Amino acid sequence: MQSVAADLSVLLADVVPRLARITAFIAAGVFVANVAVAFGLIRYVAGIAGWLTRPANLPDEVGTAILTTAASTTAGYATLAEFRESGFLDDRATLVAVTMNTFFGFVQHVFTYYVPVLIPILGIPVGVGYVSARAGIALLITVTGVAAGGLLLSEGNVDRSALADVDAAGPEDDERGGRERVRDAAGKSWRTLRRIVPRLAVVYTLVIWLVTTYDVTALTAVAEPITGVLGLPGAAVPVIAVFTLDTTAGAATLAGTEAGIFTTRTAVASLLIGSILSFAVSTFRRSIPFQYGIWGPSFGTKVIAVNTGLKLVFIAATVALLLVPVW
């Protein structure tokens, strides 16, 4: 009994400081991000959206939806859906606009998740490397959308006479006072912490216990033939597996591995591979309900196919580039 208590004490002594440090970073980052969103600062990041529409042969009004996506993915998609339903954009033009939306939708997650949550868990080198890779992938998809619009769209894909029936003013003006916005930001931050921190505590405790109790290298040795071909350590297997089901828990799993097992490149590559596999889970959990709700099953399926296909191609290419020097 005393031995168990001593082991538990050692485990908590290792876990609690790490969890407290991460929680502090997450609390500060999420609060600052929510304040920025509440005061509309995030929308200025998307100010270049209008510059992208003309090379893509899309009307300037589509830039409104793209800009809105940086503040609210739902609002941005809803605006595009209204454009399509009114006949202002046909299906091809709408798919191009959805593709161009990718980077601006990513911008929102940078402020609300990647910077305040994921980077503190992964640490600066791996965290910034992973977020930069995802930002580059999102930007390439947006550029692909612009190029596709330039090649595939013409005036025939847009009916400007339908614009009179569209309310494209974007989100309504926020009339809340500064104090109320800060209070709401604090409330949102608390809800985020309440959702994330308990899960992190459980994952961190389990990971540290496994690392200190078992030889992780031996446990993952069966995966060496596969991970060896890619130049990844065997410890990448549990990281990828957990990341597939939950990105935050997967990041915590990687952060709990012994120092020196991963380089920055192999760590980022492992997380990207996990993100590829996680599409299958996230498609059923989030994408289908959201996209079908916005577009309906028929066109929603096309949107999911285009979004998922482009992400798979560019993430796979990024993983290959990261691992080329290892081969």
UniProtKB/TrEMBL annotation:
Organism expressing this protein natively: Halorubrum ejinorense
Entry keyword Transmembrane helix: yes
PANTHER family: GATE DOMAIN-CONTAINING PROTEIN, NUCLEOSIDE TRANSPORTER_FEOB GTPASE GATE DOMAIN-CONTAINING PROTEIN
Domain of life: Archaea
Lineage: Archaea, Methanobacteriati, Methanobacteriota, Stenosarchaea group, Halobacteria
Transmembrane segments: 22-42, 135-153, 201-223, 267-284, 304-324
Name of this chain's protein: Nucleoside recognition protein
Keywords per UniProt: Membrane, Transmembrane, Transmembrane helix
